[in-house]
Amino acid sequence: MTALPFVFAGLVILIGAVTWRPHGWGPAVGAAAAVLAASLGGAVELGDLRAACGSQWQAFVTLASVMAMTSTAERLGLVQAHRNRESLGSK
């Protein structure tokens, strides 16, 4: 049995979940369901998940740091102040 139909089923699940809920948990649930579907077909194994996490953890930390800094700047009012300056025409 080939794993290709399971991979395409996972892709359809992912696209459906993101379309249904584009924000919040939709993408995460869709990705998890897609990986589960691909693993049922034998296309993804536990070693693949370990390798992916091992090679991408630094990117995840960087992304989380940027998101935290952006959220902090927005709460401090720095983002709104920049938007106000742009609307007045000064840069």
Written overview of the protein:
The protein is mainly alpha-helical. The protein has two domains: 1-44; 50-91. It is built from four helices and no strands. The protein has helices at residues 4-20, 26-40, 46-76, 78-88. Helix 1 runs antiparallel to helix 2. The protein is elongated. 11% of the residues are buried. The model has no long low-confidence stretch (mean pLDDT 86).
How would the blueprint of this fold be written?
Layout: H1 4-20, H2 26-40, H3 46-76, H4 78-88
Helix pairs in contact: 1-2
Question: Unreliable stretches, pLDDT < 50, 5 or more residues?
Answer: none
Distance between the termini: 61 Å
Structural class by secondary-structure content: mainly alpha
**Overall radius of gyration:** 20 Å
Beta-strand segment tally: 0
Biggest sheet record: none
Mean pLDDT, to the nearest integer, reads: 86
The backbone outline, from C-alpha atoms, is elongated
Describe the structure concisely for a colleague.
81% of the residues lie in helices and 0% in strands. It is mainly alpha-helical.
Defining traits:
91 residues, 2 domains, mainly alpha, elongated
